[in-house]
Amino acid sequence: MNEWLGRRVGVYGYGRTGRACVEFLLPHLVNPVVLVDGVHEEQRTAYRTEAAGRFEFAFDEEISQQVPRLDSLVLSPGVPLANPRVRAAMERGIPVISELELAYRYCPGYIVAVTGTNGKSTTTKMLGHVLSALGPTHVLGNIGMPLIANLGTITQDDFVALEVSSFQLEAVDRFAPRIAIFTNLTPDHLDRHGTITEYARLKRRMTDRMERGSFVVTNAMCPEFSPERFTNQDPLFLQYRSTPGNRLHGAWVANRQINVDLGAEQWEIPLECIKLPGWHNVENALAVIIAALLVGVSPETVAERLATFTGYEHRIELCRREARVAFYNDSKATNPEATITALKAMDGPLALILGGRDKMTDLGEMTGWVKRKAVHVVLIGEAAERFEQALREAGYNGYEFAAGLEDAVPKALAAVRVSGGTVLLSPGCASFDQYSGYEARGDHFKAIVAGLVL
Q: What's this model's pTM, rounded to 2 decimal places?
């Protein structure tokens, strides 16, 4: 930390990540200045009281005055490089890094990083569950708890299963995991990144600083993550595929077996050890299997650990089954592609709750799956009208509106109560129109479901 001693470091954003950055910097004789946009006077007073003289705040119009005085600037994930004040710092030559980059520089553990559009949270959680068979393992990052908040608990013998977002990768410099896993890529966050090309480029940046002796594990069905698309070819590339095809240097499924070829060693692992529903979870498991075998987990232990992995909260989570009706919480589905994955995993009559804060992604493929799978749709949130238009254009009329989940859940239940079936919350949207995050939305759904009289 000597390079930070006495320096004036800006921390942009004061949510969970921003707070963790400040608490990390303070003991190292750093002078943090927290930059916060859009805060009313009452909240400013509360923040200053919380700081208690240990660090400074700069709000809104004050930020532009503080930026020229900074030696470095650390960004929370919600603050883009396109922010005018961030751009002003960069134009002045002030180093700008993300929380991920700052934390990486001081993390002693063995990092296995996971990125992609969908499946990364489940993959990260599953990875942590399997790696913990070898020793202490920390499941961190975009999955919920920032890496920087946990540096004091990580030793050089520990594993870190780290979920990484495109937002975090915008401002990295030295970040280089020992193993990098890529799940898949579909249009998402285009409101921030502009194009899927730029979105994919940011994801691939995760490997730019990786060295020989490290590994990149990619989905063979995702062209944007084909090995030749990566700038840095120093790591060893391995691939996985759940569909029929040729052998891979990596893992694939054939004849109800998971086949693994890592060059010097080959294994077969029974497909039945994966207990989560859907072929998307087979793909998640294939990536985990490769990473686990690379670090020394035996194939027998891999199979045992996978068989005891029950899933990730808020991702196709069965939260109640009673009176011939099952309720699934898939609040983590914050884009249409994640909703498609959930729809593919469902059987029988299905009532779907859709909507939230719209990311303005294409809805065509999702509405096609809705027509195939759902007998009824309940629309909620800011995106409801655009989703209605997309459903009508697809020739689907079995929908109605609801003000929120309190209204939507009973309406969805009414559609399948007599025949039996499934009520699925899989919004295809962000939650920020009505909730602080997808976790709060999922928790609310589960509380409503638990209180239903069936």
A: 0.79
